[in-house]
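Need the bound structure for 2-phosphoglycolic acid, inputs here:
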Amino acid sequence: MRRFFVAGNWKMNLLARSAVELAGALARAVPAAFPNVQVAVCPPFPYLPAVAGAVSGSGVELGAQNAWHEMPGAYTGEVAVEMLLDVGCRWVILGHSERRLILGEADELISRKTRAAVAAGLEVILCVGETLSQRQAGQTEQVLDFQMQGSLAGIDYRAIGRIVIAYEPVWAIGTGVTATTEQAQSAHSHLRKWLATRYNPRIAAETRILYGGSVKPQNARSLLEQPDVDGALVGGASLKIDDFLPIIRAAEGIRKS
Ligand code: PGA
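Answer from helper R.:
Posting the output first, comments after.
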């Protein structure tokens, strides 16, 4: 049985005070780990220590939105995985489409980061997903295969246990256009088959695959009920406690056989 995982990707939002307020409200709502759903928030780098303090002792885990794969040294403007662990991160988001498309990160770099993060003891939320033109050209599965192949290069069957996949169709991110439940289930099922072929059926059955892209309280339940959807990576709706909590509660209320 895969436990649900709902993670908030705050992106480049909030300031110190609002970050701590939001984290504090979430920690009060999730005072201890929920049995059926794991919960994490991923604030911007400067607020990681303050948010770590605000969620300390609660059921809310901490993640970062990016990392650099080299050991600490001369990499101006970058943050090492050791530093993330040092400030209390358990998770790091890697390969988000905003980093792929705006910052030009390619699968080769993402795989280096993934290997470094896992080797250091972090857990990774690895994002993949097609653009609108790729979907319209019928290339969705091909794009997902390519990204999985590239981003998971050098990740063996032991390391994959520390990785959660997030399927995030680019056309659904921040647009208000959510994938239909059929589109999400179809992509997730494809990713699970890929994991079975690349690794083995047990790993495919155990690896969690989150959906991301305009997840809201209104659509969370129907998405999370899909057999291969194991949680959500939530952007915009994770910035308001009144939007984020119902998504967590929707996951908490679903039992899959
Ligand atoms: P969104 O972002 O929920 O605002 O669409 C999701 C994400 O980019 O992780």
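Comments: The pocket of 2-phosphoglycolic acid is lined by residues 9, 168, 173-174, 212-215, 233-237 (CB under 6 Å). The radius of gyration is 17 Å.
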